Amino acid sequence: MSNSLVSIQIIPKTEKNEDVIPYVDHAISLIQQSGLKYEVHPLETTIEGELSTIFELIETMNVAMVEKGCSNVISQIKVLYQPSGASMDDLTSKYRA
């Protein structure tokens, strides 16, 4: 079982104040490619996995934004680290029909 849930909102700063959605879409594609369980929400994406693996992914996402031309990136993250196990399903199943 995974030991962490991490929610991330990535805010890339573009050089010419262009639309950031294509950059955010690219960041989400990196999450998809990671093979980790995730859920995309309107203001953030939650990732389930091992804490060190998720932090490596966040670093990859930030570097990718700069490589795509962003001058900087703000990553707002929330972390639940629970060595006994952490799961989105365990925390939210009572809200699902």
Give a quick precis of the structure.
The protein has 3 helices and 4 strands; from the N terminus they run βαββαβα. By secondary structure, it is of the alpha+beta class.
Mind explaining what this structure looks like?
Strand 2 (37-40) and strand 3 form a beta hairpin. The protein is built from 3 helices and 4 strands; from the N terminus they run βαββαβα. It has a single domain, classed as Alpha-Beta Plaits (2-Layer Sandwich), CATH 3.30.70. The two termini are 24 Å apart. It has a 4-stranded antiparallel beta sheet with strand order 2-3-1-4. The model has no long low-confidence stretch (mean pLDDT 95). It has 97 residues and is of the alpha+beta class.
Topology:
Elements: E1 4-13, H1 21-34, E2 37-40, E3 45-49, H2 51-67, E4 72-81, H3 88-92
Antiparallel strand pairs: 1-3, 1-4, 2-3
Helix pairs in contact: 1-2
Q: Order of strands across the biggest sheet?
A: 2-3-1-4
Average pLDDT for all residues: 95
Q: What is the rounded distance between the termini?
A: 24 Å
Q: What is the second-level CATH architecture?
A: 2-Layer Sandwich
Order of helices and strands: EHEEHEH
Indicate the CATH topology.
Answer: Alpha-Beta Plaits
Question: Could you give a short account of the major beta sheet?
Answer: 4 strands, antiparallel
Decide which structural class fits the backbone: alpha+beta
CATH class: Alpha Beta
As a percent range, the share of strand residues is 25-35%
**Number of domains as seen in the coordinates:** 1
Q: Low-confidence spans: pLDDT under 50, at least 5 residues? A: none
Give the proportion of residues in helices: 25-40%
